[in-house]
Specification:
Length: about 140
């Protein structure tokens, strides 16, 4: 599926719609250069799952978690690997354990840094900058 959006709000709407298919859990791997809208997409996705609170990008911790109103035994995880120094650090972050609970909802910015750790069932979302406010979003 491919979408072209013309504002941050439209990107959030695409994500919000997609989220409806993943109330039971899922892994969304986000790929795209700086400022293409990975965090914006995550915000829309979280909104679609009625996750309350402002989604801001994790920096020092690399991972932020939010309760899921529809899934008390799982959480929404927002992972941003931009500052990941070495693939070895992935083990310490506990990402595998997060993936192991199939009810968790996991959004990962800079998911290419996960390499082979990214599970095959992860939904791959490619964002591209086509102009100041124009983005292409490809979901595979
Ligand atoms: N169509 C669009 N979709 C998404 N964001 C857009 C769009 N048009 C403009 N923008 C702007 O582009 C910026 C996207 O920033 P955002 O933080 O979501 O990107 P990012 O991919 O997470 O960047 P980073 O790699 O730094 O984490 C925001 O300022 C947003 O308002
Ligand atoms: Mg970001």
């Amino acid at each position: 599926m491919k979408f072209i959006t013309y504002s941050a709000g439209e990107t959030q709407q695409v994500a919000k719609n997609l989220a409806q298919q993943y109330h039971q859990g899922g892994i969304m791997a986000l790929f795209g250069e700086l400022g293409t809208g990975k965090t914006t997409f995550t915000q829309g996705f979280a909104e679609g799952l009625q996750v309350s609170g402002k989604i801001i990008s994790p920096t020092f911790t690399l991972i932020r978690e939010y309760p899921l109103p529809s899934q008390p035994q799982a959480k929404l995880y927002h992972i941003d690997l931009y500052r990941l120094e070495s693939p070895k650090d992935i083990e310490q972050l506990g990402i595998r354990e997060i993936f192991d609970n199939r009810h968790n909802i996991v959004l990962i910015e800079w998911a290419d840094k996960l390499g082979k750790i990214l599970p095959p069932q992860a939904v791959r979302i490619y964002l591209k900058n086509l102009g100041q406010n124009t983005r292409e979003i490809e979901i595979r």
